[in-house]
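Hi team,

Filling in the usual template for the complex we talked about on Friday. All components are listed, including any nucleic acid strands or ligand strings, so the model treats them as one assembly.

SUBMITTER: L.P.
PURPOSE: interface mapping
COMPONENTS: three
RESIDUES: 1259
SEQUENCES:
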Amino acid sequence: MSAQAPALPTRLSSRFEGIDRSLPVWLLAALALVFLMALPLGWLALVSVTGERGFTGAHYLEALGDAQLRKAFWNTLVMAFWVGLGSLALGAPLAWLTARTDVPGRGLIRSLVLASFVTPPFLGAFAWVMLAGPNAGALNELWRALTGAEGALVNIFSMPGLIFVVAIYTFPYVYVMIGNTLELIASDLEEAGSILGASRFSVARTITIPLVAPAIFSGFILSVLQALALFGSPAILALPAGFHTITTQIWGMFQYPPRIEVAAAVSIPLLVATALLLLVQKRLLGRRGYAAVGGKGGQRRRIPLGMWRYPALAGCLAIMACAVFLPYGILAKAAFSRAWAQPLTWDNFTLRNWTFTFFDYGSTQEAIVNTLELGVMSACVGAALAALLAYVARRKVILGHQLVSFLALAPIVIPGVVLAVALFIAYTRPPLLLYGTLWILFLAYVTKEMPVGYSQADATFRTIPPELEEAGRGLGAGRLRVFAEVTAPLARSGIIASWCFIFIGVIRELSASIILFTPGTKVMSVVMFDLKEEGQFGAIAVLGIFMLAMTFGVVVLVQRVLGRDFMGVRE
Amino acid sequence: MSGVRLSGLTKRYADLAAVEDLHLEVQPGELVALLGPSGCGKTTTLRLVAGFLRPEAGEIWVGQRCISSSAAVVPPERRRMAMIFQSYALWPHMTVEENVAYGLRFKPDLARTERDRRVAKMLKVVQLSGFESRYPGELSGGQQQRVAVARALVVEPEILLLDEPLSNLDANLREEMRFEIRRLHEAFGITTLYVTHDQAEAMVISDRVAVLNKGRVAQVGTPEDLFRRPRSRFVAEFIGNTNLVEATASGPSSVAKGPLSLQIAADGLAPGSPVLVSIRPHEIKFAPASAANMLPATVRRASYLGTAVDYEVQVNASELVLRVTAPVWPRLKPGDTATLAIDPAACVPVSDA
Amino acid sequence: MIKSLVFLAGMAFGSAALAQAPSVEAAKKEGKVVWYTSLAVSSAEHVAKLFEAAYPGIKVEVHRTGSQRVLQRVMQELKANIKNADVIHTSDAGHFVLLKEKKLLMKYAPKGVEAFPAGFKDPQGFYYGLRATVTVIAYNTKSLSAADAPKGWKDLLAPKWKGKLVTAHPGYSGIIATHVLALSHLYGWDYFKQLGQNSVMIVQSAVDPAGIVASGERVVAVNGGEYTFYQTKKKGNPLEIVYPKEGVPLVVSPSAIMAAAPHPNAAKLFTDFTFGREIQQQLADSEGLYTGHPEVTYPSDKPKLKDLKLLQADPDELEERSAEIKKRFVEYFGA
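RESULT (copied from the run log):
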C-alpha cells in the first residue's frame, strides 16, 4: 500500500483537474432558466387539456364556441395588423431621415423617439383619453372652439383610436430596426447606382429599399407582437367603446366565477401564433442579413434635403407631439388641476392630487415600495442570470448551450397575460404556493424581461475577445475566476445596461401584474389601473409623472454609463 | 473620347481646404493616377469629378462641357461616368448579372437582348463567364472586384473613375490585377482617373501620375519623370526612396558639403546659394573608378532584400550618410570600405517643399 | 404565539351564536384591520382615518375596488389558502348570500344594529347593511337644460341620446348589478337591448359616471350611485340628478367579517365603529349615502327614502342570476 500510495493520489487529482470546476455554476444557471420557463408553461398546457375527469378538449371547444371570444380574437388581429402598418408608416421615414439625411435636430428627434419608447403604453392611452375623448377631450374642445362644430374631431374610444395610440408607442421598434440596418448600408452602394445613371428615385427603389426590406418586415412583425400582447391600452380604450381584445378577455376570465381552464385554452393558441411570427421574423433577418459585402471603405454620407430640411423636421416633431408633447402636457395639467377637463386657471390649480395620491390613498406608498423592491430585485437577479447564461452560450461552456440561448430569448413570444395565467396556475398549488406574495410577481418579471437582459449581455460579450480569458486560464486561473476578474469588469457597462433595461421593463409592466397581484402586493401600474376604474384622473396623472421621472432617471444613468444611445442606434 | 480639365478647383470642409486651387489636365484616353498620402485630397478630387461634391471655386470640364462649377453641378447620373469604389459597392441583393446590367437599364434605347449580349461579353472580358447567377456574397474578393470592373465598363462611360480599387486585395492578387487593369485600359482606351496611395501601383498602371500634397498638385508627369526628376523634397521623398543632401552651390553645376564636392544635374547655380540634392539609392554604385563624384566611404549597415542589398554608408571625412541600393554581388559587410561613384545626372536639385 | 391564541379565541367566539363585545386591548394587539371594500375610495379612506383617530394603534388597510373584483379577490385568495381579508363590504348583496352559503363569514351583529330596518339585516346574522344608495339618472347642466333632460328610464331609449350616454358595468360594480336586475323586472331585458343600441360609453365603477358627466365627456349617465352624483354636485360641478318616478332601485351594501379573519377583534371593533351613529351620520353627511341607522339625519336637499318609489332586489336572486346579468349586459353593450 505505502509503495503504491504516491501513485494513487496523483492519478486521482489529475482526474479532478480534468473537470472544469466551474461547471456547477453554469449548470445551475441553465437549470434555473429551464425552471423559470418550462414549469409554468408546462402547467398551462396541462391545465388547458385537463378537466374534472382527466384529459379533455372541452376547454378548447368552449373557447372556439364562444362568439364573444371569436370576436375578441378578430379584433386583436385587426388591431395588431394595423398597428404594424402604422408603426412602419411612422418609424421608417423617421429612421431614414435621421440616419441618412441632413435633417436638422437629429439628436433631438432621437431623444424624443427614446421618450416614446420608454413611455408605458397604458399611460399614453390614458393621456389620450384626456386629449381626444369625444366630448371632454382637450383637442376636441379646441376644435369646437375654433370651428364651432358640434361633434368631435376624433374619438379615441374606437378601433382607429386604439390603433393610433398603440402605434405611437410601438413605432420605436421599427425605428431601431430600420435605423440600424441603414447604418450598415454604406453610401457607396447608392452612389454606385447614381453614377451609373439612376435617378435618386430609382436608387431608392432598386437599391435602398430592397436592402432595408428585411428590416422593414422584421420591424412590422415586432410591432405586431407588441400589439398582440398589450393589455392596458385595450382595457382603457376598447372596453368603453364596447369591444374586447384577447388580452382583455383573458383578464375577464379571472373575474368571479373564474374560467381559468378556458383562459389556458385561449392562451395556448395565442402563444403558438406569436411563436410562429417570431420564427418568420428570425428567418427573414437571418437569411438576408445584408452586412456590407465587399471591401472596406464604405462610408455613410448624408443626403442633402435642401429646402425640405425644415418641413421634414416639422413632420418629425408632429409625430413626436402625438407621442410625447401632447400626452405629457395633458398629464402635467391633470396632475395639477382640480377638474382636468377645465382649463388650467388659477382656481383650477391644486396640489391636492399630489397629497391625495401619496398620502391619502392607502395603496400608493406600499405600491411604490413594492415596485422599487421588485424592480431592484428583478434587475439584479435578472442581469446576473442573463450574464451567466449569455456567457454560457457565447463561450459554449456546456453541452446544450444552444438550448440555453433559445430558452433565454423564448419569453419574447409569451404575451404578459399568458405568462401570468401560466404562473397563476403553476404557483397557486402545492408545492410552491407563491400566489399572494411578491415572489410570483418577481418570477413573472424575471421571466418576461429575460430576453432583453440576455440580448444586451450577449451583445456585450461579443465585444470581448475570448483571447483575454484564454490568457488568464493559460496562467492558471479557473473559468469562474476568469469570469469574475477578467470578463465581468470588462463587461461592466453592458451588464449595467442590462440591469437598467430590466428595471425599466419591470416598473411599467401591467399585463402580467394585473392578474397576479393581490391587495397586499400591488405595484404602481396596478394602482394606476385601479384608479382609472374609479375615474381618478388627477391621481393617475400624478403617479404617471412619478413613474416617468423614475424611468428617465434610470435612462440618463444608462446613457452616462454606456456613453451611447440607449436604443443602440449609433450616430 | 473626351479629356478632363480641372482648373482652380477648391473644396473646403469648415476651415480646412481638402482641395486648394487644383489644376490638372487629363488627355482623352489617358490614364492619370492621383497619388499621395492620406489627406492629400485625392479622393475628394475624384468625388468632385464624379459630381458627388460641389466645389467652392473652380471648374471641371469634360470635353466641351463644363460639368461642375461653384454655381452648378451636373448630377452624377447625367455625367456619363462610371466609378469603381474601394469597397466595390456591389449590391448584395442582386446577382452578378443584375449588378453588371444595372447601368444599362438607364439607357432607354437599348433593347433587352442587346443588353444581355453586352453583359455576357463583358463578363467574358473579366473572365467571369458562368458566374451570372451568383450573388456577391458568394464570391471571393478578387472576383467581386472584377464584377465591379465589368459593371463600370459595360456602360461605355466617357470617364472612368477608380477609387483605390485594389487596396483590399492581397499582395499577389494586387500585382496581378494591376496588369489586368492596365490591359483593360489599353483595350478600351477610356479616359481614366485612378486614385491610389500605392506608388508602385501608380507607376505600373498609369500614363501619367499626379502627385497630390495638401490639396494641390505637387508634380505631374510620367512615372520616369517623377522618379528621375522630382521637383520638390515632397515628391522626391514620396516616390521611392531617396537621399537628400543639403549642400551649397560651389559652381554653376556643382555643390559642396563640407569637404565633399558633387557634380549635379543642374546649370547656372548661383555660388553660395543653398541647394537640396536628391540622390536615388540605386543610382549610387560601388565602383572601382569613375570620372566624377568619387566618394570614399565605409559601410555601416547591410540588409539583404533578395533582389538587391540595401546599404547604409558613411562617407569618409564627413557626416553624410547615404542609402545605397546595390546588386547582390559583390557583397559588402558593415565595416568594409568602398568608393561610391555617383553619376552627376543622378544628383537632382529639388526645392525644399 | 399570542397572535395565534387570539386567533383561535376569535374563531371560537365567532362560531358561537352570541355577539361578543370586542376588547379594545385585544384589537390593539392585533394592530390592524384589513378592509376589502367597494365604497368610493375617498369615502373609504375618510372612514379609515376616522377609525385610526378614534383608536390609535390600529391601522386600517383599505383595499378598494369594484364589488365584483372584491369578491374575485377574496375567492382567489381563499382558494390559494391566503387569509388576508378581515372585513368585506360590497354593494352586491348576492355576494353575501354566496359567502354565507360557503360558510366563509363570521356571525357577528354590530352594536345597535337591532334598530335598523329589516332590509339591512341578514336573518341569520352574518351580514348587515352598512350603507344604501339608489341608482339614478344624472346629466350635465352645461350641455342640457332641465326641460330637455330625460325624466325617466324609458326616456333614455330615445335616439336623440345616441352617443351621449354613459353606463357603469355590472361586471365590476355591485350597485349596477342590482340596478340591472331591478330594471329587468320593471321593463324586461328588451329595455337593455334597446339601450345598448344607443352607443353607450362603458365605464366600470358606479362612481365613474359622475366624473364623466361632470367633465362633459358624456351628457347623461343612465345609471350610477346616487351618492357619488350628490357629492359631485355638492363640489360645484355642473351636474343634476333625476329620480325617475317609475322607481329607483335601492341598493343596500352589506358588510361582514370573514370567518378566517386574521384580526378578528380589530374587525369587530371596526364593524361596531362603522355601524355606530357617528360614522353612519358621516356617511350621510359627507358621502351622500343613505343608511339604516334610525338616528341619522339627512341633508335637506336630498329626497327622503320614503318619498321615493323604491325598487327592491332580492339578494338570493342577485346571487343566482349573477352570471346571467353580466352575460346579457355584455351581449347588449358589447363588452
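MY TAKE: Chain B touches chain A at residues 50-52, 75-79, 81-83, 85-93, 102-103, 105-107, 136-137, 141, 144-145, 151-152, 155, 161, 163-164, 167-168 (CB under 8 Å). The longest strand of chain B covers residues 16-26.

Thanks, L.
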